[in-house]
Amino acid sequence: MFTWANGKPNTVTNQNGNTFYYVTNYRGDVVGIVDENGATVANYSYDPWGKVLSVSENAAVTGQPIGYAGYYYDRETKLYYLQARYYDPETARFISRDPDPGDKDDPITQNAYTYADDNPVMLVDPDGNRGLTTLYRTVAGALTYVIVSGAVAKSLVKKAVGKVAKKVLRKGKGKASKYVDVTKSGSRYANRETDVSKAQFEKKLLRDGWRKSISKDGKTIILTKDGAKYVLRDGAKSTGGSTADFYPKGSKRMTLKIRLK
């Protein structure tokens, strides 16, 4: 028997009625299992696509099936069950088509077999249907840890917004701005709504050392620092207002849209 908490594996109870606690990373991978005293009874590791690299299990939890991203893993076929389809980590592809044709303006979503838009570090597919969940849901990202101490298992989510977000999302002396999660189900990136204006956002980033450039058509402002990038624009198609799109270092895909005032 299994239980879940905050969308991630929480406990597993074996045939003898003993309950154990899952230890998961930011993506929801089961990386370990501990007993009620905090003693480790299993360890697991995976590559970014979910291929199992190592398994070490105590007899009490041998064969338990929950693994990469919290998916059910069939050890005989070596496939993950994602409700709508089966996923093969060896090929990093689903074994059947996605019925959703994808977005016309986003070619990668039109591939019916790709997993997580070929970006498993930043995205996870919750159920095998089109519709991805962004793993990093703040300006600098969000990390999820599971801490187990004694007989208590606690889940701690640390919002690692970093210095940039803390400075940008402030208005005046000690007054924090509005910063609300408005991400819709199935969105490929996180959405946040704030009452910081485009001018305020740009000004504070420049003060923090970001470099500014303008697109060739003059319609967008591009701010870069240490490989990361913000793209500021007016009249965004999705909101009609001003937005700031965030691209992490080394990524060509945005992971966050901030809706500015």
TrEMBL record:
InterPro entries: Rhs_assc_core, T6SS_VgrG/RHS, TEN-like_YD-shell. Residues 14-121 form the Teneurin-like YD-shell domain. The keyword Repeat applies. It holds the Pfam family TEN_YD-shell. Keywords: Repeat. PANTHER family: PROTEIN RHSA-RELATED (PTHR32305:SF15), PTHR32305. This is RHS repeat-associated core domain-containing protein. It comes from Anoxybacteroides rupiense.
